[in-house]
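Below is how a single chain appears once it has passed through the pipeline. First comes the sequence as given, then the structure the pipeline wrote out for it. We keep one example in the README because the format questions we get most often are answered faster by looking than by reading.
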Amino acid sequence: MSVSGDRAAELASGLEGVRRRVDDACAAAGREAERPTLVVVTKFFPGSDVELLAGMGVTDIGESRDPEAGDKVAGLPGPVRADLRVHFVGQLQTNKARRVARYADVVQSVDRARLVRALDRGRAEAVDDGDREGPLEVLLQVDLGEGEQAGRGGAAPEEVASLAEGVAAARWLELEGVMAIAPRDLTPDETRRAFDRLRGLGEQLRHTHPRATWVSAGMSGDLELAVAAGATHLRVGSAILGSRPPQR
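Resulting structure:
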């Protein structure tokens, strides 16, 4: 088997395993009719992996490093790019937001007002230049940690309502929901409770922003807990693509 054939087999095996885990988690939670969207996190991995995954039915990928992500997306064949939704899932510096708004379809890590304004300006420029059509979808990232467990990125829960109003006022942003990363060093029960808090924040948000139905939670190690807590989107990388390749 060729090198590319070996890699395709590795990806197919990883993807099948994760899809099976999601199926089992949905069955355990009684969610067979509302399967969450799988966002395959391809950061650090080459565009050739994205092309292989797209051929296996993957429709959503996650990236978190700019300009690496922009270069990767720009290098994808047109038909592949047309069928992919690109999620920016990492913490985003304000000075990179305008560039990210040009190639991302979704930014899941909106956590401050300055970033809202920068993304709105960037998307407006992209639309004016004819590079993109329509608004950029965004999620509000929430920091679920308490005390020493805080700091994995995101706005404090009490800041979500005002941040949502800022997004709603932006012309070229569309609020889709909330996102969080589970705090480190939690027990499974504690992780589940953290995801439950995120779901509760999402429900509160929908009282004033009914369209914001997404709850993005869960990664390779805790996706089952996220499914049980009602996550609509899962962000899974290493369980599908393997260990991070060495950086050059």
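The two ends are 27 Å apart (CA to CA).

See the next section for the split statistics.
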